[in-house]
């Protein structure tokens, strides 16, 4: 029998991981990236003798594949993807491919906001409880690379809608859907229902032995539930109403009940993650932990000592009684809403960058009640001025992290918070959101 040919489009973390696993499984592997390949990924491919090309897609080397693994960042309207579909060559995600070669169970977390935090927190709880667990998907090391090189019993995977679009036979043993809010609509014909349908693929192939955990307070999720057949055992969570089986907030106490005899209660003041949205994230992780029957003490301890990911509401410093917070990962309006919702009033907000057609309306009430000044950081801040000129007295333009921090420092008084939460992509002035966050932190440390 001739060797099956697997072609991988995109040579980032997921692509190179998929290439490693495909080679290990005996496929004839070829990697093609339309852009340049980062040095460390190039070195990894060269070391394994995997053939690759960059800055082009050569049709005759791709359209002879038995199957193609596509990076989540490549849209379905890319010419090479259209050509593959036309030839009926299956196009799948790295997650779909990797799951075929592992017996490990998966906890899959998706949602427009909070998925990185919830994924990290869930992983933290499981690891502390002594479970042999890996972390992957949209975060950390590629799932496929780990399947190729290590043996875990469980994986906690952060899953984006783009990954879900290319997942077909994959099944999540425990699926978590945090929320559905408008994001990436340019990939979904600007229709929220298309994006919502993508998110609901998280429950596909689940059986009665699996679990689906979701936010009962999220309007779009509730709408989508009505259109989706769900076989799994459901555990909703809410901060607005009492939930019989799942999790809810009563006054300042979280109740998590998946087993009638084994309820977990915890005061929100004990949570490492503060702010309303983080109560949701903590509830979701807590339900996962209870489904796995971990001990209440272990869960409580882990939820109390968790350190959040870099660039997500990250405490940087307190200088002259002013708190500086780096939330550079907030690349959409919703994330900035969450950030403002979780910090104390009297905020000097640093925002701006590449605007993906943002609708700033949802921020207006919070800006009015909590923000005393906005420092714009970006090449074109016209839309921010238009959106908030009636809500904030001071709006200043700056063109670097250093300048933004200097201006914010002069505007902030004792007890205020300087919050970098841009609501925009970073590509006008920075390499990426990490670069933006690191430059902000460096500027704060120089004050």
TrEMBL record:
EC top class named in words: ligase
GO biological process: cell division; cell wall organization; peptidoglycan biosynthetic process; regulation of cell shape
Main location: cytoplasm
Record-listed ATP binding positions: 111-117
Pathway(s) where this gene product acts: Cell wall biogenesis; peptidoglycan biosynthesis
Keyword tags: ATP-binding, Cell cycle, Cell division, Cell shape, Cell wall biogenesis/degradation, Cytoplasm, Ligase, Nucleotide-binding, Peptidoglycan synthesis
One Pfam family this sequence matches: Mur_ligase_C
EC numbers for this chain: 6.3.2.9
GO CC terms: cytoplasm
Subcellular location: Cytoplasm
The reaction(s) this protein catalyses: UDP-N-acetyl-alpha-D-muramoyl-L-alanine + D-glutamate + ATP = UDP-N-acetyl-alpha-D-muramoyl-L-alanyl-D-glutamate + ADP + phosphate + H(+)
Mur ligase central domain sequence ranges: 109-288
Any GO molecular function: UDP-N-acetylmuramoylalanine-D-glutamate ligase activity
Ranges where the Mur ligase C-terminal domain occurs: 311-424
HAMAP family cross-referenced by the UniProt entry: MurD
Function: Cell wall formation. Catalyzes the addition of glutamate to the nucleotide precursor UDP-N-acetylmuramoyl-L-alanine (UMA).
Family: Belongs to the MurCDEF family.
Name the record gives this protein: UDP-N-acetylmuramoylalanine--D-glutamate ligase
Species for this entry: Pedobacter frigiditerrae
Taxonomic lineage: Bacteria, Pseudomonadati, Bacteroidota, Sphingobacteriia, Sphingobacteriales
Gene: murD
């Amino acid at each position: 029998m001739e060797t099956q040919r697997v072609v991988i489009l995109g040579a980032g973390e997921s692509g190179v991981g998929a290439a490693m696993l495909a080679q290990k499984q005996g496929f004839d592997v070829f990697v093609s990236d339309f852009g340049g390949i980062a040095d460390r990924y190039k070195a990894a491919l060269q070391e394994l003798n995997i053939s690759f090309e960059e800055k082009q897609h050569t049709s005759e080397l791709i359209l002879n594949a038995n199957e193609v693994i596509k990076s989540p960042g490549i849209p379905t309207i890319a010419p090479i993807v259209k050509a593959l579909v036309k030839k009926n060559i299956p196009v799948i995600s790295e997650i779909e491919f990797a799951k075929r070669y592992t017996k490990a169970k998966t906890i899959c977390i998706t949602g427009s906001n909070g998925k990185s935090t919830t994924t990290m927190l869930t992983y933290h709880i499981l690891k502390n409880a002594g479970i042999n667990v890996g972390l992957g998907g949209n975060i950390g090391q590629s799932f496929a690379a780990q399947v190729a090189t290590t043996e875990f019993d469980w994986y906690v995977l952060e899953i984006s809608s783009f990954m879900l679009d290319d997942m077909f036979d994959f099944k999540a043993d425990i699926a978590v859907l945090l929320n559905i809010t408008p994001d990436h609509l340019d990939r979904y014909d600007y229709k929220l229902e298309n994006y919502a349908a993508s998110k609901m693929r998280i429950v596909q192939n689940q059986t009665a032995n699996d679990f689906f955990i979701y936010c009962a307070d999220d309007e779009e999720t509730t709408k989508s539930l009505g259109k989706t057949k769900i076989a799994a055992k459901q555990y909703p969570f809410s901060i607005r109403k009492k939930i019989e089986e799942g999790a809810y907030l009563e006054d300042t106490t979280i109740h998590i009940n998946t087993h009638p005899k084994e309820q977990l209660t915890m005061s929100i003041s004990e949570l490492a993650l503060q702010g309303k949205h983080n109560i949701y994230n903590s509830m979701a992780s807590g339900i996962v932990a209870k489904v796995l029957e971990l001990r209440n003490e272990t869960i409580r301890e882990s939820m109390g000592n968790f350190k959040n990911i870099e660039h997500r509401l990250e405490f940087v410093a307190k200088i002259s009684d002013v708190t500086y917070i780096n939330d550079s990962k907030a690349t959409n309006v919703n994330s900035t809403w969450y950030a403002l919702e979780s910090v104390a009033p009297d905020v000097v907000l640093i925002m701006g960058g590449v605007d993906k057609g943002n609708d700033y309306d949802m921020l207006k009430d919070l800006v009015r009640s909590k923000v005393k000044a906005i420092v714009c950081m970006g090449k074109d801040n016209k839309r921010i001025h238009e959106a908030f000129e009636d809500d904030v007295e001071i709006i200043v333009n700056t063109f670097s992290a250093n300048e933004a921090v200097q201006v914010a420092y002069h505007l902030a008084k004792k007890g205020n918070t300087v919050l970098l939460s841009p609501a925009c992509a970073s590509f006008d002035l920075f390499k990426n959101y990490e670069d933006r966050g690191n430059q902000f932190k460096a500027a704060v440390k120089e004050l």
